[in-house]
Amino acid sequence: MASMASVSWAPPLALAPALLLVQRWRLWLRKLRAKAVAVWPTWPPPPELLLRKGFAVSLLAALLLLLWVARSPGKNFLEDEEMLAWVRKEQEKRRSKLEDLLQQIPVSRLAQQVPPLRPFLTSGGLPVNDREAEEAAKEAVVVAAKFQITANSVSEAAEDLAKAQPGAALAAEGLACAAALAALELKSAPEEALQQRVAEAEEFTMLVQSRLSRGRARDVWRLYAEPLASAERILRQRRLEQWRCVARLLWRFKTTLPFVALSSVLSMVLGAFSAMRYHYQASVINLAKEAVTSSSGPARAKHGMQEAIGAMVVSEMILQLAEFARGRLTLRGKTKVVQELKVALFGALLRQDLEYLEQCDLWQLRSLIGSCGTTISQVVDFPATLLEAAVRLFTAVLALGRQNGRLAAFLGVMLPARFLLSQALQHCEERLEQSALPDFKGQINSCWSCLVQPASLRTMRAFAREPHELKTFTRFLQVHEELQQRKILIFRLMQPLQALLEHALEIGTLWYGGRLALRGDMDFGELSSAVLVATGAFDGARFAQAAAANVSRQALGPLAQMAQLLARRPRIGARSAKLLGGAA
């Protein structure tokens, strides 16, 4: 019996030292944790500490960064005599190219047809008295003259000079002459090339705004503003006629309209339920606050929280089901329309006369029929996108207005203001990138031309110009690297402003909404959803606007061309068709 008792007590006695050791380790870890808590700082720091010390540290860091940035390491690269001589040589090349183009333009006739051009011209060639002006007027053509030099060639040469030598007076004169030529090209452009001319004029406007000062750019824009406005009016009228053609084209496939209608209805459901979970999230926060602060209704708050969470789950299920159903309906409707339209277009092309087939561009027609699916998708998806954005915006205004009308008005002002300020910062960044440093981005092509072209390679080897080409490439890399460093620096300087602008909306909403909540005008939980709901509605409206612009610019022209092809009737008579049918 004694031996059995000793055996039963043996395991607990063996574990006792281990238990004591574990207890010591636990006590040691507690002491270490207490010391660490006492030594380590509190994170996140208290607001008063961050406001008092963090603000001072941030100002000091910003001052040090500005002082560091002010000592730009790229100031001395143009002080090298060889580098400066190379830069001047490249500037002179581009200046000579632009001067040669301007000398080929009949300046007197151009100034006679575009009188506002005269103040921009500093070179010769203009009539100096009334008699010469009358002779120039007699020689001038009443209609817009077709000059051998185009506006694109002059604008490209002026842009190259402006990049190599920012602020050059000859570059401004070249842009003014290009604007005058663009005005004449817009006046004399045929109907089928008018849209391309307008697009080129819009690109030229962006070029002028980026290379000239605001006042100078406005004066250059006035040279072709009237012809551009007239061309845009013609395009708007043509676009209205194109919409009629597209409506007739879609009406041919009216059997697919129910699919479009059902997908639009489902898009309205998506727009209505898109921000629903944020509202229920705010309800959960309000109920949790009520359960903590109120002693009379914890059970009621708990029941309400369960219902709100269940509503969040149900709304998410409705969103996913509506998204899936809309995708299936849209795909089925588009597939049927695309198949029928491709067959109809190919059949209409087969029925055309040989004369028409010889004159038209068959590769372009093939591309038109092949890309029919993408074009139809843009048009068919647009009603659903527009309805979803409209319903989302309406429900957001309704929900935010129910929470607090003043907060809804505050968000309605702040969201467009943030968008406009973001665009202004982006424009400012682009203007800063047009720096005083020379830009020889196109020089790399001439550096590589001596290798990729056999004739240039043989010439370089014959005259032993390898060291010269190597020096040119090295200098180009130095200038290009300095320019890239400056652009990166500008981006790093503007990025914090963009980020601050993005977060300013949330900070401002929390500040204003917090004041309203402290006065009892709204619940605290609704602050968590207000910014998300308003931002989602605003972004949806911008997306719908971009979709409408894409439909108008990219899909309207091809659809009108499809409608014209389907409406075209060949000149082959019925008798010839019967003979062909009998022969078959």
Task: Indicate the topology.
Blueprint: H1 2-39, H2 47-70, H3 81-103, H4 107-113, H5 130-139, H6 151-164, H7 169-188, H8 194-211, H9 214-251, H10 257-273, H11 276-293, H12 298-350, H13 354-359, H14 362-370, H15 372-403, H16 405-433, H17 443-452, H18 454-462, H19 466-518, H20 527-567, H21 574-583
Organism: Durusdinium trenchii
Pfam families: ABC_membrane (PF00664)
Subcellular location: Membrane
Describe the structure.
82% of the residues lie in helices and 0% in strands. The protein contains 21 helices and no strands. It is extended. The relative contact order is 0.08.
- Report the sheet-strand fraction: under 5%
**How far apart, in Å, are the first and last alpha carbons?**
117 Å
The pLDDT mean sits at 77
Helix content: over 70%
N-to-C order of helices and strands: HHHHHHHHHHHHHHHHHHHHH
Supply the number of helical segments.
21
Total number of beta strands = 0
Structural class: mainly alpha
Please outline the major beta sheet.
none
Q: What keywords describe this structure?
A:
extended; 584 residues; 21 helices; mainly alpha; ABC transmembrane type-1 domain-containing protein; transmembrane helix; membrane
In short:
The protein contains 21 helices and no strands. It is mainly alpha-helical.
